[in-house]
Amino acid sequence: MSLNFLKLNESKTEIIVFGSSDVPNTHHGNSSVLFSSVKSCVKNLGVLFDSALKFDRQINLVVKSCFYQLRALAKVKTFLSFKHFETAIHAFISFRLDYCNSLYLGINSSSISRLQMVQNAAARLLTGVRKHEHITSVLRSLHWLPVRFRIDFKVLMLVFKCLNGLAPSYLSDLCEYHPERTLRSANQSLLTVPKSKLKSRGDRAFAIAAPKLWNKLPIHIKTAPTLHIFKSKLKTYLFNIAYDS
């Protein structure tokens, strides 16, 4: 770290170990790291990372924050038009559900269900639909993608940016086309999917999960000429899958 002019700040720096917790103390330049005090969960850019990458505490925080905001929004609903209230829902709820949601790719379905519960509650508050009534048709009428598909949407948007020079090189380098060969798949814009040894973590890495999602897209979406057109076609495609239309 000293070679890069970096130094650990004992009062601010948080360290987390991914893997075995039985790791001896080590030294980084002039700083000594005591692994006995290493945290099981750290915050980076407002996201809580746990050593197992399950994001349980992060999702707990998002759900708690969203329901707090929904209770506050319910008090001002009568003062706003439907359009303006929907804008408020997106600003206070959808924003929290979408923030860094690409990290949720591959997490267990129960965690996704908790986030979906928040979106369902937001849709009920906006439209006035009661708890016992089905929510799927309401989400469809609002043109809201379910949480699981919003995650896929975010990842695929990032892949398109990587392939079109709109993303940082450290991400673009992870997306590579198949070597050109005289195969039927040569014109399908397929990306190379690296092998992984760990399904619970390795298969969720961007370099592996993102190409898998991309390769499933129809060719007319992958070859969209601009980001705006790709975004529109992708949302329509995912919307049709989500609601079987």
From TrEMBL:
**Keyword set for this entry?**
Nucleotidyltransferase, RNA-directed DNA polymerase, Transferase
Asked if the record carries the keyword Nucleotidyltransferase, the reply is yes
Q: Which GO terms describe its molecular function?
A: RNA-directed DNA polymerase activity
Would you tell me the protein name for this molecule?
Answer: RNA-directed DNA polymerase from transposon BS
Native organism is Labeo rohita
